[in-house]
Protein 1
Amino acid sequence: MNMTNNSNTNDPKIIVALDYADAASALNLVNQLDPALCRLKVGKELFTAVGPQFIEELTGANFGVFLDLKFHDIPNTVAKACSAASNLGVWMLNVHASGGLEMMQAARQAVDNSDIKPLLIAVTVLTSMNQAGLNQIGIQTDLATHVLNLAKLTQQAGLDGVVCSALEATTLRSQLGNDFCLVTPGIRPAHASQDDQSRVVTPADALKNGSSYLVIGRPITQATHPLKALEAIHAECIHI
Ligand code: C5P
């Protein structure tokens, strides 16, 4: 599979971030969306509040689910968490690359041994982290170099890709090849509010930069008509 292929209904490029505190609020949005046009991202807040049954409810409604729990622990524990997540039938899950090569390899093996094999990606450096924050935890390497090093380690461990800024996608795509999946948040259509994101990229530019999938929250979840907002962004993606 060429991860840089553009949008089509079989492999929607938009992942809507379900940043909600409870199932009712999340379902109110989900019921307005179309699984042919998007997948859904469930993170720590919603998952901790509503649990695994909710994931099965989403997959039962034909939505691909990115379970964004960013596992980071000893290899054995991460492997078991990845097996459990795979058994929920999710489409994608993730770990922290800074857990190291052995941890990521254990995650890879666990997913490969599962009946359902989700895409397995890693977070390199959280975008909330800056150079000073890296230095504080003892990493003196330049931030961009550290992101690239962790992305290369992720590829060496056999994972399918990384979460990264769409601004980093051009470099990572050229360094890591076309089959490596780049999942990029911080996306804003040209007309939309930036909210609290400081470095944003339009959906079209993110795809041109080499993004494989776009994580989009508030431009869809806070829209007056979420489905219309999704359809408009989807239309922008398929014309790239
Ligand atoms: O509403 P918005 O489009 O900004 O939501 C983006 C989603 O992507 C949120 O769930 C946010 O936590 C997540 N995210 C991000 N930046 C990262 C990693 C994840 O915005 N570096």
Note: The beta strands are 14-17, 38-43, 65-71, 92-96, 119-123, 161-163, 181-184, 213-216.
Protein 2
Amino acid sequence: MKNIVLYPGSFDPLTNGHKDIIERAADVFDEVIVAIGVNSNKAALFSLEQRVEMAESVFAKEDNIQVTAFDALSTDFALECGANIILRGLRTGIDFAAEFQLDWMNQRLAPELETLFMTPSEEVAGISSTLVKEVAKYGGDYEQFVPAVVAQALEDAFA
Ligand code: ADP
């Protein structure tokens, strides 16, 4: 059986933290699907199309990493894609509290799916999309935290 992983999130924008998780997951699983969705609790800086385009260009050369948009429950979308695993990243205790509840709910919605968590590599552990946007907005050095294509988009957004 193939292990197909769905990694859902808002990725507004994709950071080196996300990239670290995605590439390490692609080393151990057969396929990783980066599913970019709308988070109704957060106002997005980039459109869904822009977020998908940026992620697609970052992973263009990786055969087992796909990028797609979605507007559904992660569990429904995972099953639709043929994924058997949902992947999430865990940085802090705050992430843990939120993810624990989400996993609890997802287990009830789709018991056939397994949710797995990865912690970030040490160098990217403190990166969040929200903080990167804040740094970019006020002219700090955000380029070290994001892929080049995202750095360019941030420069354009805050020009
Ligand atoms: P969401 O809005 O669903 O939280 P995000 O795009 O913010 O989506 O994040 C997607 C996933 O990536 C989440 O599981 C989040 O915890 C994880 N993540 C974000 N930044 C990092 C990072 N620096 N290291 C590890 N995981 C991360």
Note: The pocket of adenosine-5'-diphosphate is lined by residues 9-11, 15, 17-18, 21, 39, 88-89, 91, 95, 120, 124, 127-129 (CB under 6 Å).
